[in-house]
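Justification of computing resources. Each target in the renewal requires a structure prediction run like the one illustrated here; the chain below, 241 residues long, is used simply to show the kind of job we budget for.
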Amino acid sequence: MTSETDKYLSWFKEYKSNGFHETQGWLEERMLDVTFHAYHMMTEFGAKGGALEIGIHHGRFFMAINAMVDDERYPSFAIDLFEMQDLNIDGSGKGNRDQFITNLERFDRYKGRNVTVISADSSRLDPASLEASPEMRPKVISIDGGHTVEHTLKDLKIAETLIADKGLVFLDDIIHRHWPGVFEAVILFLHQGPTLWPVFMGYNKMILTPMSAHSVYKAKFDALFPEAKTVQVAGYDLVAI
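Resulting structure tokens:
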């Protein structure tokens, strides 16, 4: 019987060769490779749960994180303004629901069977509407919605509330000249004494994890990137590549 890891590997090879390039978006291919290694880290650590992304666009990164879910009984959530583009005040992406659903059917590991698509402004979203029992919380979350300070700070707090105990949170555009609000929000968030700590930064994303899992993932990223440097952001150690 084929293991879940083998099934993931088969999907990843196909997506990297085809679906990744056919899905419009701004994800660097090197970050796609990081998700591959993160999947194995999480599997080894025993992380379980679904996926959640705020800011879908056409789903290029959502496909990568939903593939990290090893059982389609775990629910995943795709949240975007989609047709409500009049609320997209900073023009950070333009989600297209129809295109996203088409891409799910073509490229998603589960063809979207475990995915709930939600049209919403995350700044008005109540985390309780997505909160499940601890064993059903998402093990991987991507934040790529509004890039203002206010949007990013709210989305980080949503992720802090929802992420599974051994989960990972990917934050996009961490250091981008067009979106300084993202980095400003991170600094504000970290100065509030959160339970979600940064552990990796590279290829235009920061990865955060619950503080109880930080030392485990820090060691794993150190081993994965021996050429990288440990730096501090707001007093927290993380691996920077």
